[in-house]
Design goal:
This protein has eight helices and 55 strands. By secondary structure, the chain is mostly beta strands. β16 and β17 form a beta hairpin.
């Protein structure tokens, strides 16, 4: 079958009985990433957001016409009931899982051209609802205190009136979607007000006494995430998008009576349905779906059933546009995948059809900018004028920036030749990321092929693609798990679907690499699920993973600027028990979630454990506003002359590794490599520490660490790209040594922009005993006792037998540390 015929077939495909007839693998080039549909009053057209502008298209598909072209990111259009204007939000680029964009309220003529902003006292933070006579707008504004509340805006008098106050109980909502029903004189919105998120109703006008009525009846155990909603024009019902994370685990469209009642599912798919918009005649529902991987617009009957893709056949810019063809070549002149940032003359990002776009800062402290995963030869549209392109590929290539001028009606050709500044694979070192989510209640649907493209674009050799639950009991990406490397893997790029075993409170999240079977129940302490208890303990699951040859790490072990591990729900609270019972291999210390992972890891090392440093970015690659980038924190493992995933994990477990977000580091003690154990026959014992760092990022300090304390510091000039540090130390007690380097803010470095690298430890034993620091062993005992008190107070074991087994495991851990304390004394 030819590619052209595939496109023709895909353009007209339908979903029968809620299920797709064409899957994403059949063709992925026909979606543009359109979102936020809104109907014209005559039901002939849809307004939508694309490339950060507002467009319109016939509801059956065809040519999309650009309506707005001014600065800023334009999203969430709402067509006036009169048909003459379209309201939208002009904001910054998307953040988080779905493309919600807060900002200023603006109006544009429906035919394009004239735009004006509408003054509001606070940023708009929710989709917009028009009054039936088109004289008023209701939308949520983000008020001081962090919550979003509904406000009425009179477009004739410019008077803005607050309709709600922040709830006294529960966290305020940062984003609230709204719909207006003329026949019922009601406003509908999605929010959490003193309980789970619900669809709510409140009267229009100025009631003497306000009662907000929940139409849905979700319970805490349901764990419902609501996206957006639309009201039927006859006032009978509301359609909304929701994911029930203790149920299906993906967004579906639901219908609930305007008087409240049991919701009815209108869709039943394996993907996600967002942003419903009911047509003016009540017969159709436009919405967004990621059935083809990337998001795009679809239309379906209001009663459910077959849906049609609103295919964009071509784009009509306000000004005649051009095309840009970008070739990216590696150091050998071969096409190579990269992250390609695009900024056109209007300040917006453009990308090829079928390719998801992501928004993430390029410069430290900078605004989010749009990029896509480029294949090495890509063509996409752009408005005329100057164009900036920035290509990034891992940490061993220099960032490449090019500028070009796009001409109307022409194809501008750009070739970017990447330059390698180093190649550690030639030295036997290969890279991995422990914590890589493909799908996690986000905008896109990522399949193994997309994940492999990410590995290629960021130059990772091993991606631990974690199968995991989110807020509730649904396990994402379970369908991809094989107990072996994914068959799409190549000799240099290995996808292995491992697992994130999650207990958000009170035990922590673990990562399992290289497992042959999933460790069930995969999550614990999830209310309303089949695993609501603080049991089994994390350590039990870790022993299962280790028993099948897996590598175990604690992910994001400590967050923020917290000093007490019990201050955060995601922290690795059970780590000392898991380590004491021999089921822990590593601790993820990069990226630094506030700097505390180093301290937690050092404490475990001082308690006599040999634990490798880990790197897990905790990325969600189906988020349009991606929160972190795959491989932007990574471990380098000394594997040997050829990459092998089994040997990668074996050497990683042995500690033959370092972690970095840019700089590269070698470190030895008496010529012995990272992970080595040196036995000192007599004390004092002389050791020579030697480390060398290389980087294209500006460096600042280089340090040697002994048992968690800095024993040598070297300041590095900002222009230096290499530095070597040596030191002799007389060892009188068991010690571990490591080297670490930090730098100055640099382009392409995530989070705080600081380049960092940390070696794996090298251990020096005296008297054949492991490293034991008395104060830290005492801290372990204190830590285990504190955790048990916390678990006892929660009393969520499920049965007395479970509690007895858990207590026995804690006693084993305490006895482990009591023995060590006697040795350390």
């Amino acid at each position: 079958m030819t590619a052209g015929l595939l496109v023709m077939l895909a353009a007209g495909f339908a979903v029968r009985d809620g299920r797709l007839g064409v899957q994403a693998a059949d063709d992925e080039t026909i979606t543009w990433g359109a979102t936020d549909p809104s109907w014209s009053p005559d039901g002939e057209f849809l307004a939508f957001s694309l490339f950060g502008s507002i467009w319109k298209i016939p509801a059956r598909g065809g040519v999309a016409e650009q309506i707005t072209s001014s600065a800023g990111y334009h999203a969430h259009p709402a067509w006036s009931p009169r048909g003459d204007r379209i309201a939208f939000i002009r904001g910054r680029t998307p953040q988080g899982r779905t493309p919600n964009v807060p900002g200023t309220l603006a109006l544009v003529d429906a035919g394009g051209g004239s735009e004006r902003e509408v003054a509001t006292p606070h940023p708009v933070a929710g989709r917009i609802a028009w009054s039936p006579e088109a004289k008023q707008i209701v939308c949520a504004l983000n008020v001081p205190g962090g919550g979003s509340l509904l406000h009425d805006i009179d477009l004739e008098t410019s008077v803005v009136r607050q309709l709600q106050h922040l709830p006294r109980r529960g966290a305020p909502e940062p984003w609230v979607d709204t719909a207006w029903s003329g026949p019922r004189a009601e406003l509908y919105f999605t929010a959490r007000r003193g309980g789970p998120t619900q669809v709510w109703s409140m009267p229009v006008g100025k009631p003497r006494f306000l009662i907000q009525l929940p139409l849905t009846k979700y319970r805490e155990g349901d764990i419902a995430l609501l996206d957006s909603l639309s009201a039927f024009p006859d006032g009978s019902s509301i359609v909304y998008s929701a994911v029930l994370t203790n149920g299906r685990g993906n967004y579906e469209l639901y219908k609930v009576p305007a008087t409240g009642g049991e919701p009815v599912a209108l869709t039943d798919t394996e993907r996600d349905e967002f942003s419903p918009a009911i047509s003016p005649d009540g017969a159709r529902i436009a919405h967004v779906s990621n059935h083809l991987g990337n998001i795009d617009l679809f239309v379906m009957p209001a009663a459910g059933g077959a849906k049609q893709h609103v295919r964009i056949e071509s784009l009509k810019f306000q000004q005649p546009s051009g095309q840009v063809r970008v070739r990216v070549l590696d150091e050998l002149g071969e096409p190579t995948a990269v992250r390609l940032y695009v900024r056109a003359s209007d300040g917006k990002a453009y990308y090829p059809s079928g390719t998801p776009v992501y928004y993430y800062p390029l410069d430290p402290g900078g605004e989010r900018e749009g990029f896509f995963i480029a294949s090495g030869d890509n063509t996409f549209p752009a408005p005329p004028g100057p164009l900036r392109l920035v290509a990034l590929k891992g940490v061993e290539y220099r960032i490449a920036e090019r500028t070009a001028t796009v001409s109307s009606g022409q194809t501008t050709e750009v070739t970017i030749q990447l330059e390698r500044w180093t190649n550690w694979a030639q030295r036997g070192w290969y890279t991995g990321d422990n914590h890589f989510h493909a799908n996690y209640n986000g905008s896109y649907y990522q399949r193994p092929l997309q994940s492999l493209r990410w590995l290629d674009a960021v130059d990772l050799n091993y991606g631990n693609m974690v199968v995991a639950n989110s807020e509730g009991g649904f396990i994402h990406d379970k369908e991809f798990f094989r107990g072996a490397q994914d068959p799409l893997s190549t000799a240099r790029r290995v996808l292995y679907w491992g697992q994130e075993y999650r207990n958000t409170d009170p035990l922590g999240h673990m990562g399992f690499l290289g497992i042959r079977s999933l460790v069930m129940p995969s999550y614990t302490s999830v209310a309303g699920s089949d695993s609501p208890y603080d049991y089994p303990l994390n350590t039990m699951a870790a022993q299962n993973a280790r028993g099948q040859g897996g590598l175990v790490t604690y992910m994001h072990p400590m967050a923020g600027s917290q000093e007490d591990v019990f201050d955060g729900n995601y922290n690795a609270r059970e780590a000392p028990v898991t380590a004491a019972l021999g089921a822990l291999d590593a601790v993820d210390v990069l990226p630094l979630f506030g700097g505390q992972p180093y301290a937690l890891w050092y404490t475990l090392l001082n308690a006599g454990f040999r634990l490798s440093p880990g790197a897990g970015t905790d990325t969600f690659t189906n988020y349009r506003g991606i929160t972190r980038l795959p491989g932007m924190a990574r471990e380098y493992v000394e594997v040997g002359t050829a990459f092998d995933s089994g040997r990668f994990l074996e050497r990683y477990r042995q500690g033959r590794n370092f972690v970095t977000n840019g700089p590269l580091l070698s470190f030895t003690v008496n010529g012995q490599a990272m992970g080595s154990v040196i036995n000192a026959a007599d004390t004092p014992y002389r050791v020579r520490l030697a480390a060398e760092v290389s980087s294209i990022m500006p460096l600042a300090t280089m340090e040697f660490v002994q048992n968690g304390e800095v024993i040598e510091t070297r300041q590095i000039g900002a222009s230096q790209q290499t530095e070597r540090l040596e030191k002799e130390v007389m060892v009188t007690r068991g010690s571990w040594f490591a080297a670490r380097v930090s730098g100055r803010p640099a382009r392409g470095v995530p989070d705080d922009g600081i380049p960092r690298v940390h070696s794996g430890p090298i251990y020096v034993q005296t008297g054949g005993k492991p490293v034991l620091v008395k104060a830290d062993v005492e801290l372990m005992i204190r830590w285990v006792e504190r955790l048990w008190l916390y678990l006892e107070r929660r009393d969520n074991f499920g049965s007395e037998d479970n509690k007895t087994r858990a207590r026995r495991m804690f006693e084993q851990a305490l006895e482990h540390y009591r023995v060590k304390l006697a040795q350390a004394g």
